[in-house]
Write a structure and sequence with these properties.
single chain, mainly alpha, 6 helices
Amino acid sequence: MHGPALSGWLLVAVCAATGLSCLLRMRASTGEERRAAGGEAVMGFGMAAMALPAAVLTPPGWSWTVYAAVFGGATLHGLLALRRGGHHLHHLVGSLAMLYMAVTMAAPGAPGAHTEHAAAGPAGGIPVLTGALLLYYVAYVLRAGTRLVPVAAGGAGPGPAWAARPELARACRLAMALATLAMLVAL
């Protein structure tokens, strides 16, 4: 993505840390929660790679096509999970948003292609779709932020391991939603 290098690095750090915590959560979980954590880890690391500042690393022109393929695969996976009756609508919207941004940035002459940052205007894209995604993520961030209250551990015994705590999953989803929101604004 294009933009100031400091905000780019902060976005990379948040997304990479989120991806790492999702991997740890995946290791501590089973079943559907494990699959969800794995998908979120892919999203976190993919977003971190997309957010690398262009001043530090100018990716080859084909990299946006690779991002589009990865997030296209994640979108197909989300569609299949939704069809199986899973509750992955947010994962599907996230994958579609990242696919949309990768395709938009891959367009010839787009600022995301790292051709000309100074003279470049908007990357293009479809303003109505970008606006709809922005509205979705603003609503999601506000809703997720209000739900980010630690869950009280039941019983007298110790609570679940830190990697399996439900509020960690919510915090990861909130961090990725905020990162997606920042990337959409920069688009």
